[in-house]
Amino acid sequence: MNTTGKRPKSFYFLTAFFALFILFLYGPTLTIGILSFQGPSGGLTFPMNGVSLHWYFKLFETQAVGDFGGSLTRSLLLALAVMITTMVISLSAGMAFRKKFRGSGLLFYLTVVSLIIPSILVSLGIGLLFNQAGVEPTWYGSAFGAHLTWTLPFGLLIMFAVFNRFDKSFEAAATDMCATRFQTLRFVVIPLILPSLVGVGLFGFTLSYDEFARTIMTSGSQNTLPLEIFGMTTNVTTPVLYALGTLTTLISFAAIVGTLATLSLLKRRRSRIQAG
């Protein structure tokens, strides 16, 4: 803001540009959400033919649109399992890498390289490995492993950054007070890094929940939600597909809002502890 109290022209230009970006980002999602409320005789395009929740009720009719309930349940369970595993392994690896050990550099690069390999090749390789071993690929087995190759590198990078700036004097103080290693981890280390650990969990959940490429050849005969949606795009010609997209978007936003609320509570708790 200049000395005359007027905003510079660049401010309005950047504001307009940002507004256009938000419209470009969420416009298609908003359009799908509106069209999902078509009437029973409505189609996939405007103008809308009535307003109703008809297609949301149709969503749960297995014979009409496939196994939506089952695929949603599988995706949620898989995402939760990947989230918990990613948090545990990332925390353990982050603490292990605080000290140099033989092969640590090679192990780090082998972990991160999975981000570079095309996801479809990872899916193909894991699927072939299970087939060669005589084990049928499943969403809770091979797909679980495939998703970890995607979520763990992000979790590890976050934990490495967190522990790189972690003040070890807190642990030293706990040791001076005769705290065991487990007590130091539980009452000192984890509370201090908990917001970052929650962020790792959010990464793990969201990356697994909507992962398609690493699932397509590892889920076996039972689809996860992204695979079910892909199948619906080839044989569903009603707004029920829009209802599914809107519902899954709301689930994603609910996960994000829940995480932000958790982080806010943790921040308030830490502030109360420091004030006390």
TrEMBL record:
Keywords: Cell membrane, Membrane, Transmembrane, Transmembrane helix, Transport. The chain crosses the membrane at residues 12-37, 76-97, 106-130, 142-163, 184-207, 240-266. Residues 72-259 form the ABC transmembrane type-1 domain. It is found in: Cell membrane. It is a multi-pass membrane protein. It comes from the Bacteria. PANTHER family: PUTRESCINE TRANSPORT SYSTEM PERMEASE PROTEIN POTI. Belongs to the binding-protein-dependent transport system permease family. CysTW subfamily. This is ABC transporter permease. It comes from Pseudodesulfovibrio methanolicus.
